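Data card: per-record layout.
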Amino acid sequence: MRKAVSFLLALALLAALVLPAAAANERRIALVIGNGSYKSAPLRNPLNDARDMAELLRRLDFEVTLLENAGQKAMEEAVRAFGAKLGRGRVGLFYYAGHGLQVDGANYLIPTDAAIGAKSELKYEAVDAGRVLDIMEEAHSELNVIILDACRDNPFSRGVRGLSGGLAEMNAPAGSIIGYATSPGKTAADGSGKNGVYTKHLLANLPTPGIPINEVFMRTRIGVSRETGEKQIPWDSSTLTRYFYLAGEGPAAPQPEARKDLADVEAQKKALEEQKSALAERQQALARERSRLESERKALEQVLAGQPKQARTDEERQALQAERERLRVEHQALDGEKARLAAQQQALEAQWEAERRRAESGSPAAPKPKQAEARPGPRGWIGLTIQEVTPEAARSVGLSEPKGALVAKVYEHDPAALAGVRPWDVVLDINGQPVRNGRDMIQIIFALGPGDEARLTLWRRGQVVVRSVVLGESRR
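The structure for this 476-residue chain is written out next.
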């Protein structure tokens, strides 16, 4: 008798080591559907995908219902039965492989018996994916996993208008994660092997012990992206609030990488403080400049008000109007730069707060984001501010249409001023590259460094002039 008890205990211990470590009261329920036998656009992989997925999920302690080449009625009945099995303390997993379509932001899973002749018939012939999510949410399960390998091309594209291949992104219900075979609105390949590309990588990663479900989808995304040359990028949407391990428990939370020395964080904080101080000084300078412009505007208004209209020649009136327009543009440019600086300061303050929290918690510092420009090292400084060329400004400088970048202000003793660039010049070209607007000019200048030459082709009140500017080092 003792030998028998010892043998049973040994078996129990062996099972505990081999089987996935699901919680004692956690029941796992899965509904797996694979549709491939479509009349108009059959698919080769979904049946293999669904069968292999069902087999894997059974090994991972799921109670699996498998449907193959299901019609609409069978799919809807299976979804209802699936929802009835879910509930508190249970884990639900829904997997679908086959055709899927989106219409007006709603996603539909296509049964094999669907006969869709018009866009309006889709909701009566197909299964609304949103309904599956609603049923899972209403069951109040412990956790829900939805996997949709349903982003194939539109099977009705030749006969029905208004139907889009690919799926729209859906909001994951609380405690859920949704995995898509590719990005929202994009289509995925059916695959040339036994399984579709997405499901192939899912099958390889799902049984990996010790990694949470979020990591499973991340590894799958990396694998699919590499295999397809980034033509297919899987997507997921998650509202999970705990770590869930399909193939055996892992640690309570992912172990953080080696923590960086707090001195690194302090250095970043100090650099941020210096940037904030420089921004504050620049804002004060802008405030003084704005006050000066406002005084000039009021003085100009007094001059205009004090002169009799009949005493003004046409030439004087044009000169005064041009001066007023110059002040308006310069004023607008300062407002724009002030807004930009305020936004930059707000971003710096948010980064400062994030670094402070990281320093207090001892977490590793976040990597610095890459700059938009590819050029390493400091940026070049040209020493002027620009404004988009409005129709009014174009007429003032004699241009037939708005184009280029309008020089609003030239900073004294800076590179542009030393090269003879003036306010109200319009930059049309830099080093042979056309400048269509202010953004073009910023991108061209940001690609240059201190000491580089910027050869500016300018429109100056009816004539074209060229000025060569040797850039200084950026002050920002």
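Known properties of this structure: The CA atoms of residues 2 and 291 lie 97 Å apart. The first helix runs from residue 2 to 18.

See the next section for split statistics.
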